Amino acid sequence: xxxxxxxxxxxxxxxxxxxxxxxxxxxxxxxxxxxxxxxxxxxxxxxxxxxxxxxxxxxxxxxxxxxxxxxxxxxxxxxxxxxxxxxxxxxxxxxxxxxxxxxxxxxxxxxxxxxxxxxxxxxxxxxxxxxxxxxxxxxxxxxxxxxxxxxxxxxxxxxxxxxxxxxxxxxxxxxxxxxxxxxxxxxxxxxxxxxxxxxxxxxxxxxxxxxxxxxxxxxxxxxxxxxxxxxxxxxxxxxxxxxxxxxxxxxxxxxxxxxxxxxxxxxxxxxxxxxxxxxxxxxxxxxxxxxxxxxxxxxxxxxxxxxxxxxxxxxxxxxxxxxxxxxxxxxxxxxxxxxxxxxxxxxxxxxxxxxxxxxxxxxxxxxxxxxxxxxxxxxxxxxxxxxxxxxxxxxxxxxxxxxxxxxxxxxxxxxxxxxxxxxxxxxxxxxxxxxxxxxxxxxxxxxxxxxxxxxxxxxxxxxxxxxxxxxxxxxxxxxxxxxxxxxxxxxxxxxxxxxxxxxxxxxxxxxxxxxxxxxxxxxxxxxxxxxxxxxxxxxxxxxxxxxxxxxxxxxxxxxxxxxxxxxxxxxxxxxxxxxxxxxxxxxxxxxxxxxxxxxxxxxxxxxxxxxxxxxxxxx
Length: 619
Hints:
The radius of gyration is 25 Å and the shape is globular. It is built from 24 helices and 23 strands. It is of the alpha/beta class. α3 (71-84) crosses α18 and α11 (293-301) packs antiparallel against α15 (370-391). The strands form five sheets. A six-stranded parallel beta sheet has the order 5-4-6-7-9-8, with helices on both faces. The chain has a six-stranded parallel beta sheet with strand order 14-13-12-15-16-17, sandwiched between helices. It starts with 8 loop residues before the first strand and ends in a 5-residue tail after the last helix. The chain folds into four domains: 9-213, 3-Layer(aba) Sandwich (Rossmann fold), CATH 3.40.50.970; 222-382, Rossmann fold (3-Layer(aba) Sandwich); 396-574, Thiamin diphosphate (ThDP)-binding fold, Pyr/PP domains (Rossmann fold, 3-Layer(aba) Sandwich), CATH 3.40.50; 591-619, no CATH class.
């Protein structure tokens, strides 16, 4: 590429050049050309309001700017937008130089862990250092290059600091390469020194020419394909684990064809849920710690596992105790070699769709033994009956999370999307939520980030404005980050928020009890002076409609009312903090203290050691 100044040039500030170049990025989505960046989330402060703010104002027709109330929340919304678009489109976020920038760290970690693209544009200190130290500037006594933005280094796939105008040209291109590459995808951070943002420069006109990004589909290496096919064909009890990479590759139909042609049952991670319809006869549902008994019973006996587009984190593998067949082999089909080789897997480094298609061709007419396929159907039927009994309305004053999920599931219409994140809800949803052919499932569980839910729901709604977005959130997460309810009202991005009030951190309360500990520091009512927050009044104060509903019957009618509402509506329902689904699931490695005065802890320690050493069977 010619250096800056070669050929035709335009004289613009660094901020203006950056914004104009972002607006010139395009992506191909199923034959439609759409802007790669759907907009920029901005909370202005010193360090970005004067230069970048001016540039964004001029670019509004092609690159809209959105304002949130919290930097972490707006980045969550951007991350959720990218996930809802299967990583084909994305958003940028800009902040001031101090707490605004550090507020991005948690959301950047969400994007990093979940391999989702977001462009972070925090302001930074003066490159010329003339007025140092400026407001909000960190000062490291041993390193003059450190700023608050360095907190973003470990949670960025690409990190750069623009200290001279001409650095923007290669830095932006490198960031775009990372953001759009399936193997390296994640957050990219360009720190913008505030004095440099305002400087003028003669930019090459080609920087502002339209650039179209298409999905790179890497085929599998021939030798890896041959070994993978031979290994799978030698298996008598094969199982697929479907991860988020299947969705990002738009490989759902290909996975279905593969399962049906070769009669291989499939289990799904949180990120992979919805790749196969929930009622498909070979879909065993969620796998691992929060999985179904159907998936986990089959996984315990599988002799070969085809792991597609998954990181194989501990919730998927039951802390590496779920798979127990002798001489088990794992095939890792993944665009990222780091993931493809986990657990000493046979790597099949490729795009999920391309890899599945070529693996199917290599297998020809091979099929799993009929007895194994029939076993999958029987396990699935047994789990469906168990799930139906757990999600039905028993008329309890304070229902379980599973019962609330059952009400929401039965209320679905058309292409509704459910959104959730941390706490006990993801586990219950992973077990019980049945993805209909036209309904969506959007869970953030790679980082299990409390506070993602409402901001994430906003991002999903921006990605799919024509769909009903139902956010399911506990009161703990709600109280941690709820400000974007007002943003959703102001933007006309209507959400239905089902707020389960169990009086605190019910999920961790249950975990605390399971390790033999006393109830401590989790439930609000258990604290001196503790009590219930008026969540209905709080939601109304943010501009939303809100109702307190009584039990499952009240929630059912309230959901119908919320669909007709003209803005975001919050439905508050009290739930039992100590009730969860015991069926299904698998052991999770949570170390218990080796020394304790509490008999309950000592007993829990004995159970822990036995489970860790033997690897308990699925429930």
